[in-house]
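Hi support team,

I'm opening this ticket because the web form for multi-chain structure prediction keeps timing out on my end. I have pasted the exact lines I submitted so you can reproduce it. The total is 174 residues across two entries, so I didn't expect it to be a heavy job. Is there a limit I'm missing, or should I split the entries? Thanks in advance, R.K.
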Amino acid sequence: MDNLNFDEPTRKELQTFIEREQAQSRYNSTVQNMTSMCWDKCVTGTPGNSFSRGEASCLANCVDRFLDASIFMTKTIQDQRARLQASQPETF
Amino acid sequence: MASRKEAFMNTIRNEIALSNAQELLNKTNEKCYAKCITKPGTSLSGSEETCLARCMDRYMEAFSIVSRSYQTRLARERDASA
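Hello R.K., no limit was hit. The queue was backed up. Here is the completed structure from your submission:
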């Protein structure tokens, strides 16, 4: 951006713009990853003209359960760490 | 200055949109090839083409279902923490 010679306020504005675009881009790649994973899990037959009721609800649930699982495992690790810290206070 | 700024922003927007579309297309190719072309022959058969066309539609639909659920979840988490 330096060699484009924008003035300071414009630079600030572009910085904000790029941060927003980057966030949007991260959102997009999360959706891409979850789509790939949930497709493998939920769409098992030959693709038809529409999703069956089971496939559609599996796809929707897949996202929520993936996030629940990730929150659960993060919490489990934190709890284990806390227990370890409580039992060996001198090493931390 | 304003038009140079706009041009810069549009370039960024276009590049991101293009890379998102490419990523989705690559994934769709990979998933639908795996699903529809189980035994590659000397050419694509009619039924393989039908399968590919449906599969593409379903993959895009899956993308939008996943995106919608994720958005709903994000909104719920935001409400819970607010």
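A quick check on our side: Chain A touches chain B through 37 residues (CB under 8 Å). Let us know if the file doesn't open in your viewer.
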